[in-house]
């Protein structure tokens, strides 16, 4: 038998890319590759890229530059670019970095083995199609390897919303939902391999409308209730959602489904109606706040998380203040905030841009308020008993680290628990980035 080849994958960007990288590794497993965690001994290097902001794409090009020496020392080394930069720039990548052998978009990665075979014949290989065949279909015969306690599962992909700043509708394509049966099958398989918590992924996951076994389309809430029945699956999360797709049944599930965790990532982007309109968000600050009220009525202890863009074209100081006001009202437990970054081909890229220093200054002010609320919410956990799913040993001997239902990292000293075990933990201390607790029951 010939020696297995080594594949090094570096993943950028969102959780869906993490999921895609796992699937790519599996697909390449069928072509005789095993994963390695260093590029130095690899036979193939694959960068799974992100195009959401400018810096993300630039990072890919500089990373490619760093592999030049490796490629010169080992001409047989294959270098591939996958993901959203691959989709957006295609052939341009090979022009800018001639040492790239392979370019594959996020909708065609099931064709990686064929593309790799082509590169072995000395040819360049490119596939950035949106094929009609289902990439998930070809990835069902995966090895039954043991998994950690948490996993991602893509249920929906693509976006039809066309926010004026965003490349996702162009790189990931139109919204597509996977059928319920396939998702349940994949969830059962993950549980058999040790997974206890599944995060359902989609660019607009709450717009999920996959075909149910009864022949009609199911909502995300209905899918969650179906997954609730999977024995051994203890926790369900989903990300990322659009406010307009928060349906009544999903809000209700947050109050009624014990396996659905009390955490919700619900990006608003801005608190100014004028900017929201310019962003083509199709909701207002007020409608978002009313929605949050309804979600909190269903699940009062829910921790909310959001995304914000500062310095969107035409954002005035007053518009920015409106965003701060919204943050003060919602009080997020977590948030991701970004300076607006022009993306070629999106409507907002054509508009007058704000100076960089204005964006930077607003970002700092916004982050200070986010951090303030985050701190209070984290500190408020002290004295409470939360459930923790243990994921790994801590840095100290005997210490174990896991995540609470609210997604806080929690560490426990002298914890007599294994990886993948759930326990009730009383929180005794709030540190800089994590909580400390002691187990009260298992
Ligand atoms: N500039 C800055 N941030 C962006 N995002 C998406 N596109 C851009 C852009 N052009 C942010 C949004 C989105 C998150 C995934 O990335 O906040 O919710
Ligand atoms: Fe991008 Fe999300 Fe808007 Fe879709 S809903 S265009 S993925 S920001």
Automatic annotation (TrEMBL):
<dbReference type="InterPro" id="IPR006463">
    <property type="entry name" value="MiaB_methiolase"/>
</dbReference>
<dbReference type="InterPro" id="IPR002792">
    <property type="entry name" value="TRAM_dom"/>
</dbReference>
<dbReference type="InterPro" id="IPR058240">
    <property type="entry name" value="rSAM_sf"/>
</dbReference>
<dbReference type="InterPro" id="IPR023404">
    <property type="entry name" value="rSAM_horseshoe"/>
</dbReference>
<feature type="binding site">
    <location>
        <position position="84"/>
    </location>
    <ligand>
        <name>[4Fe-4S] cluster 1</name>
    </ligand>
</feature>
<comment type="function">
    <text>Catalyzes the methylthiolation of N6-(dimethylallyl)adenosine (i(6)A), leading to the formation of 2-methylthio-N6-(dimethylallyl)adenosine (ms(2)i(6)A) at position 37 in tRNAs that read codons beginning with uridine.</text>
</comment>
<keyword id="KW-0479">Metal-binding</keyword>
<keyword id="KW-0004">4Fe-4S</keyword>
<feature type="domain" description="TRAM">
    <location>
        <begin position="379"/>
        <end position="441"/>
    </location>
</feature>
<feature type="binding site">
    <location>
        <position position="166"/>
    </location>
    <ligand>
        <name>[4Fe-4S] cluster 2</name>
    </ligand>
</feature>
<protein>
    <recommendedName>
        <fullName>tRNA-2-methylthio-N(6)-dimethylallyladenosine synthase</fullName>
        <ecNumber>2.8.4.3</ecNumber>
    </recommendedName>
</protein>
<dbReference type="InterPro" id="IPR013848">
    <property type="entry name" value="Methylthiotransferase_N"/>
</dbReference>
<dbReference type="InterPro" id="IPR006638">
    <property type="entry name" value="Elp3/MiaA/NifB-like_rSAM"/>
</dbReference>
<dbReference type="InterPro" id="IPR007197">
    <property type="entry name" value="rSAM"/>
</dbReference>
<comment type="subunit">
    <text>Monomer.</text>
</comment>
<keyword id="KW-0963">Cytoplasm</keyword>
<feature type="domain" description="Radical SAM core">
    <location>
        <begin position="145"/>
        <end position="380"/>
    </location>
</feature>
<comment type="similarity">
    <text>Belongs to the methylthiotransferase family. MiaB subfamily.</text>
</comment>
<dbReference type="Pfam" id="PF00919">
    <property type="entry name" value="UPF0004"/>
</dbReference>
<keyword id="KW-0408">Iron</keyword>
<dbReference type="Pfam" id="PF04055">
    <property type="entry name" value="Radical_SAM"/>
</dbReference>
<dbReference type="GO" id="GO:0035597">
    <property type="term" value="F:tRNA-2-methylthio-N(6)-dimethylallyladenosine(37) synthase activity"/>
</dbReference>
<keyword id="KW-0819">tRNA processing</keyword>
<keyword id="KW-0949">S-adenosyl-L-methionine</keyword>
<feature type="binding site">
    <location>
        <position position="163"/>
    </location>
    <ligand>
        <name>[4Fe-4S] cluster 2</name>
    </ligand>
</feature>
<keyword id="KW-0808">Transferase</keyword>
<dbReference type="InterPro" id="IPR020612">
    <property type="entry name" value="Methylthiotransferase_CS"/>
</dbReference>
<dbReference type="InterPro" id="IPR005839">
    <property type="entry name" value="Methylthiotransferase"/>
</dbReference>
<feature type="binding site">
    <location>
        <position position="14"/>
    </location>
    <ligand>
        <name>[4Fe-4S] cluster 1</name>
    </ligand>
</feature>
<keyword id="KW-0411">Iron-sulfur</keyword>
<dbReference type="InterPro" id="IPR038135">
    <property type="entry name" value="Methylthiotransferase_N_sf"/>
</dbReference>
<dbReference type="Pfam" id="PF01938">
    <property type="entry name" value="TRAM"/>
</dbReference>
<feature type="domain" description="MTTase N-terminal">
    <location>
        <begin position="5"/>
        <end position="121"/>
    </location>
</feature>
<feature type="binding site">
    <location>
        <position position="50"/>
    </location>
    <ligand>
        <name>[4Fe-4S] cluster 1</name>
    </ligand>
</feature>
<feature type="binding site">
    <location>
        <position position="159"/>
    </location>
    <ligand>
        <name>[4Fe-4S] cluster 2</name>
    </ligand>
</feature>
């Amino acid at each position: 038998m010939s020696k297995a080849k080594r594949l090094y994958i570096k993943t950028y960007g969102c959780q869906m890319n993490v999921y895609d990288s796992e699937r790519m590794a599996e697909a390449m497993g069928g072509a005789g590759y095993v994963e390695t965690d260093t590029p130095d001994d690899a036979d193939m290097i694959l960068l799974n890229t992100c195009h959401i902001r400018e810096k993300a794409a630039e990072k890919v090009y500089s990373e490619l530059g760093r592999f030049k020496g490796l490629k010169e020392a080992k001409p047989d080394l294959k270098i591939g670019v996958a993901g959203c930069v691959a989709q957006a720039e295609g052939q341009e990548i090979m022009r800018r970095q001639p040492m790239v052998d392979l370019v594959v978009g996020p909708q065609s990665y099931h064709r990686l083995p064929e593309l790799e075979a082509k590169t072995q014949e000395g040819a360049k290989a490119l596939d950035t199609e949106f094929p009609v065949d289902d990439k998930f279909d070809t990835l069902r015969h995966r090895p039954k390897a043991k998994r950690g306690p948490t996993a991602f599962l893509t249920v929906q992909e693509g976006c039809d919303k066309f926010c004026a700043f965003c490349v996702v509708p162009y790189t990931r394509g139109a919204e597509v939902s996977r059928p319920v049966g396939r998702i349940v099958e994949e969830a059962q398989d993950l549980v058999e391999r040790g997974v206890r918590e599944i995060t359902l992924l989609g660019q607009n996951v709450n717009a999920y409308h996959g075909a149910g076994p009864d022949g009609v389309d199911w909502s995300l809430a209905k899918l969650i209730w179906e997954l609730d029945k999977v024995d051994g699956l203890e926790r369900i999360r989903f990300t990322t959602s659009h406010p307009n797709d928060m349906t009544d049944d999903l809000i209700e599930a947050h109050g009624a489904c014990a396996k659905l965790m009390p955490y919700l990532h619900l990006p608003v982007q801005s608190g100014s109606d004028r900017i929201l309109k310019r962003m083509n968000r199709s909701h207002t600050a007020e409608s978002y706040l009313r929605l949050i009220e309804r979600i909190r009525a269903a699940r009062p202890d829910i921790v909310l998380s959001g995304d914000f863009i500062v310095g969107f074209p035409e954002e005035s100081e007053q518009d920015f203040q409106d965003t701060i006001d919204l943050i003060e009202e919602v009080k997020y437990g977590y948030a991701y905030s970004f300076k607006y970054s022009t993306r070629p081909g999106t409507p907002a890229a054509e508009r007058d841009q704000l100076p960089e220093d204005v964006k930077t200054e607003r970002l700092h002010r916004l982050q200070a308020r986010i951090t303030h609320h985050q701190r209070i919410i984290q500190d408020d956990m002290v004295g409470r008993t939360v459930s923790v799913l243990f994921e790994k040993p801590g840095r100290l001997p005997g210490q174990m680290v896991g995540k609470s239902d609210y997604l806080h990292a929690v560490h426990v000293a002298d914890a007599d628990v294994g990886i993948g075990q759930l326990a009730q933990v009383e929180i005794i201390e709030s540190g800089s980035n994590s909580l400390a607790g002691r187990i009260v029951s298992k």
